[in-house]
Protein 1
Amino acid sequence: MQIYSIEFTKIPDLPKTVCCIGFFDGLHKGHQLLLKTTLEEARKKHLPSGAILFDPDPWTLFHPDEEMDHLTPIEKREAMFQEAGIDILYIMHFTKEFAALTYEDFHELLFDMHVQALVCGTDFHYASHNSGSIHTLKAQERIEIIAIDPLMEDQIEKISSSKIEKEIEAGRIEEANASLGYMYSIDGTIRHGFQRGSKILNIPTANLEPDSLFTLPAIGVYAGYMKLKNSYYPAMINIGFNPTFGNTHKSIEAHVLDFDQDLYGKKVSFLFVQKIRPEHKFDSIEALKTQLKQDIETTRQILAKKSIQDWSSVINLL
Ligand SMILES: Cc1cc2nc3c(=O)[nH]c(=O)nc-3n(C[C@H](O)[C@H](O)[C@H](O)COP(=O)(O)O)c2cc1C
Ligand SMILES: Nc1ncnc2c1ncn2[C@@H]1O[C@H](COP(=O)(O)OP(=O)(O)O)[C@@H](O)[C@H]1O
């Protein structure tokens, strides 16, 4: 996959393409439908497939001092587009000037990028004050527009990144995973903690430092997996402040079941399946240990319900 970082004032010489366009945070089932349509149309037209996305998130323009978390920070999104088989990724640099373009200017930009057909949701909006819509896109005649209705969850609510984000933040992982079509995950590197896991509890817990700003599930204990290289290991994951020990910063740590390897410095992902319980302050270390042993059993029961092969990866869905 080729990646172009694009300034709207300096469009390089680009090939003709069939492109989808959007923010694509999470690459959820609705996004995956857009991608699938793009790949099919590109194949039919014998053109490369493309995806146009925007970075940084427009929200950051209006809140310059705040950082914004994402379901799939841009590096992860890039990897997922590559996995899905998109040929070219266009990352449009989102600036105040870019945000001020009229919808006619925006169409000119797409012509200059040699987009032949554009796949987008019927609810897609763009250009200054969100003045561009599916109607303005269809009113221009130089680019073929393929509009896809938003996918619905249980025919009630449309699947959206913001809905999934709220579910993750509330610990409703099963609902989020149903809309994503894959297991929500956070990528990072294993770092040293206080070594209470192996020294005091006899249950080692690997501490994850996320690679970028991921949306974090609610504080609590989860059944899930750790992915190391291309293998998935059953794990129970805790997100919180370890109140029994009174930590001052939030940690993300996992005890990997039936596993005994040094993980320090390793790049891994923690994947979330289901919340087991809230994080508690225990009266004694013994009480915490008893609970952790119970959590191991609960994790085994939850993970036994669905095999790892039954979880689709994005590529399987396309
Ligand atoms: C699955 C799991 C559940 C946990 N639940 C709690 C909890 O309810 N309360 C708590 O204070 N700490 C909890 N912990 C955190 C332990 O206290 C923590 O792993 C221990 O302090 C070791 O930290 P260290 O890796 O920094 O040495 C949990 C850890 C895991 C992996
Ligand atoms: N089953 C396991 N689950 C998690 N970590 C393990 C496991 N087996 C060995 N380890 C190693 O032990 C470390 C965690 O032990 P712990 O005493 O909790 O130390 P720390 O406080 O530095 O995380 C992990 O980073 C990893 O290198």
Note: The chain has eleven helices and 14 strands.
Protein 2
Amino acid sequence: MESSPNNNNNNNHHQADRQVVQVQVDDLKRDLSSEFSPLPDAQHSSIEEREHLQVYLRIRPFTSAESDNGESQDCVTIEPPDTVLLKHPSLSLSARLSADRSLAQTGQRFQFSQVYGPETTQGELFQGTVKDLVKDVLEGGNSLVFTYGVTNAGKTFTFLGPDADAGILPRSLAVIFSSIDERVFTETTVKPHRCHEFTRLSRTQQAEEAAFKRNLFRQLKESEKSNISLLNSTNKTLLEGKLQSFSLCCYL
Ligand SMILES: Nc1ncnc2c1ncn2[C@@H]1O[C@H](COP(=O)(O)OP(=O)(O)OP(=O)(O)O)[C@@H](O)[C@H]1O
């Protein structure tokens, strides 16, 4: 950011920035312990939380470029079914200079709900992680699924996957749409709103929705005819962006 000491506006901005920072620091200093009163039945609640929050680790295979570069340094060891042992990459500076040699050699263990190795297929991952959540959704439950990892870790592959090897999102949608059959709500009197809510539509709104839908299908047909699949490419761009989480809500 450019700085201009003679500019009053800028000075005001800097002062405002300082005030904002000050508030945040004060906030951080605040003792929040009193706001976290002990839970009445700590043991029960921790068991419940463990059941509700599942954390899976997926280790992807090396890409061909990585294999060609000889990047394998045996730093990740899976200890089935739920643990990984991480060691410093043997060529890393930290491994060579590590003051704690024993730590560098023995590594550190991390435990997850389950660890999936590089040979895991998209189908196996879906079966083991998300399929039961989808079943819950079909019975009225809600779930949030998201991927988390450094760039190039395999989040998009896991989430969307290539067309020929679908990830957890298209698989979830396939299960939902093939399961609801006659339970599809054919009327247009309600519309999903935000994540968990819906709005009831007036007659005028229903007519607007129907017109919007007709218009959308007409555009789709026209673009298919003229081979300019505008809608598809827009959707594809949206999907190929950073769509790496979805929440499963029940509107059935
Ligand atoms: N399970 C897998 N099997 C085969 N190839 C994979 C797998 N997971 C990821 N890849 C490949 O690894 C590369 C990186 O994956 P991906 O693009 O999904 O990473 P990402 O975490 O979404 O990255 P970014 O955060 O940068 O978007 C891609 O070439 C992808 O095809």
Note: The pocket of adenosine-5'-triphosphate is lined by residues 60-61, 63, 149, 151-157 (CB under 6 Å).
